[in-house]
Write a structure and sequence with these properties.
Strand content of chain B: over 45%
Order of helices and strands of chain A: EEEEEEEEEEE
Shape of chain A: globular
CATH superfamily of chain B: Immunoglobulins
Structural class of chain A: mainly beta
Oligomer: heterodimer
CATH architecture of chain B: Sandwich
Number of helices of chain A: 0
Helix content of chain A: under 10%
Number of domains of chain B: 1
Distance between the termini of chain B: 41 Å
Helix content of chain B: under 10%
Number of strands of chain A: 11
Radius of gyration of chain B: 14 Å
CATH class of chain B: Mainly Beta
């Protein structure tokens, strides 16, 4: 089975712009979660989608949003980019929603905001 | 509410010696616990998981962890370190009763000396 894929792998944007990141989960996985990883804050949970519905949300401002399509692919959008949004954004898929299910991570999208 | 504390931010061992990475957790409910490994510029890979079955959990690459409810710990061990084990390790707690929200520890960087 193909793993979790994320596109693009690297992205450079300017403050004030917006960006959309894409994640394709493992075939058959219906839950997709997004995380932000920075050296200062570590790994922080953004949100989780299951069957096109947002099931959980972390403590991020409304500039961070996401959606999931009927084929379970997910996109994450960040509007009005700030320098502090520079990070590695990781997507993870799992078979089902619920804490007992392990997550499979993609390689991440490295976003640099200048 | 749930939280996880990785007690050491850096651990250094010599090749062939045992590895111990410590993790304490807090959870209001019966948790699931995971260890993930992240090599440089890569996504996270699942090492092992505990979901209320056997308290001693065996994972990939010779790693294992023991769930100790009385001590609220889930320490990761390996009898003999290999150079390829050098990476960052994350302990993760998830609430089985809540849909898919995971809390990551701050990570432990493992260095393996020849």
């Amino acid at each position: 089975k193909a793993g979790v894929t994320q596109t693009p792998r690297y992205l450079i944007k300017t403050r004030g712009q917006q960006v959309t990141l894409s994640c394709s989960p493992i075939s058959g996985h219906r839950s997709v979660s997004w995380y932000q990883q920075t050296p200062g804050q570590g790994l922080q949970f953004l949100f989780e989608y299951f069957s096109e519905t947002q099931r959980n949300k972390g403590n991020f401002p409304g500039r961070f949003s996401g959606r999931q399509f009927s084929n379970s692919r997910s996109e994450m959008n960040v509007s009005t980019l700030e320098l502090g949004d520079s990070a590695l954004y990781l997507c993870a898929s799992s078979l089902n929603t619920g804490g007992a299910y392990e997550q499979y991570f993609g390689p991440g999208t490295r976003l640099t905001v200048t | 509410a749930q939280s996880v504390t990785q007690l050491d931010s850096h651990v250094s061992v010599s090749e062939g010696t045992p590895v111990l990475l410590r993790c304490n957790y807090s959870s209001s409910y019966s948790p699931s616990l995971f260890w993930y490994v992240q090599h440089p510029n890569k996504g996270l890979q699942l090492l092992l998981k505990y979901t209320s079955a056997a308290t001693l959990v065996k994972g990939i690459n010779g790693f294992e962890a023991e769930f100790k409810k009385s001590e609220t710990s889930f320490h990761l061990t390996k009898p003999s370190a290999h150079m390829s084990d050098a990476a960052e390790y994350f302990c993760v707690v998830s609430d089985n009763t809540n849909a898919g929200k995971s809390t990551f520890g701050d990570g432990t960087t493992l260095t393996v000396k020849p």
